[in-house]
Design brief:
151 residues, mainly alpha, Cytochrome Bc1 Complex, Chain D, domain 2, 6 helices
């Protein structure tokens, strides 16, 4: 019986010794040094967006209530400060610009193609910054759909 107990203890020793160092492993919080970079050439899960200034993309998002509602929300967050909450008024930031940004009146928006509006949002226009890194392509198309319905 003593022999079996000794063999059991000897068999367990390697497992116990292996666990000794486990509590001293480095752990890092989010955005704490060292931040691991993605491998070179890695592609995001959503894929790479390839849009050129010369392209004439077509709107892949059908204009629906859901799309327009998302576009309205995105407009309020990203655009209204300059272009205004309604086409008749400029936003508080836009009032300070000389010349002011366009009011995005329905007649002006209707005269522009979806591709033109999408590329203006994507690449920026005049003093307007590019939103390519801030908004996904789907969000930018939702903005286009909202602008088409804005009154």
């Amino acid at each position: 019986m003593k022999r079996i107990a000794i063999l059991a203890v000897l068999a367990a020793v390697p497992f116990l010794l292996a666990a000794v160092g486990l509590d001293e492993q480095p752990s890092y919080k989010t955005y704490e040094v060292p931040v691991l970079a993605p491998p070179t050439g890695a592609v995001p899960v959503s894929g790479r967006e390839v849009v050129s200034q010369q392209a004439e993309p077509t709107n892949p998002i059908p204009s629906s209530e859901a799309s327009v509602a998302k576009g309205r929300s995105l407009f309020a967050i990203n655009c209204a400060m300059c272009h205004g909450g309604t086409p008749a008024e400029l936003g508080r930031v836009g009032q300070r610009f000389k010349p002011p940004p366009p009011h995005l009146a329905p007649a002006l928006v209707q005269s522009l193609s979806d591709a033109f509006i999408f590329k203006a949002i994507t690449f920026g226009f005049g003093r307007m910054p590019s939103f390519q890194q801030m908004l996904s392509p789907q969000e930018r198309w939702n903005l286009v759909n909202f602008l088409r319905t804005r009154k």
